[in-house]
Amino acid sequence: MNNIKRRWYDEDPTISLAVSMLEKADKPIQLFCAEFIKDKSHSFNIYIEENKLEDAFIYLCKRWYDEDKEISDAFEYLKLMPFELQKETALEIIEKLQEKKS
Fold it and tell me: In terms of Cα–Cα distance, which of 93, 44, 54, 43 is closest to 76?
């Protein structure tokens, strides 16, 4: 009955909250978090082929995070992470965003 297509990050409320908070954050904070995601991915040996990033960026630019290549790349890294690492990273992003607000 429910044919609503969910986004990959809507499968978990914590990850969804982190994405929502990132969307509302100022650009410098978004870029700071994007760098954090990329660094965390690399520390777990998660890499994306550069040509795949270029193709993804050119192909789809309709999501809010596709407006900036660094942020778009970070979401590709986040998407590739195993679920538990995604969730851990989301919690850390939420914490960082709350610290920046204070």
Answer: 54
Q: What's the angle, vertex CA 75, arms to CA 24 and CA 11, rounded to 5? A: 80
Q: In one letter, which amino acid is 97? A: L
Residue 54 vs residue 99, higher pLDDT: 99
Q: Is this model's pTM higher than 0.85 or not?
A: no
| DSSP string covering the chain | ---PPPPGGGGSHHHHHHHHHHHHS-HHHHHHHHHHHHHHHHHTT----HHHHHHHHHH---SGGGGSHHHHHHHHHHHHS-HHHHHHHHHHHHHHHHHHH-
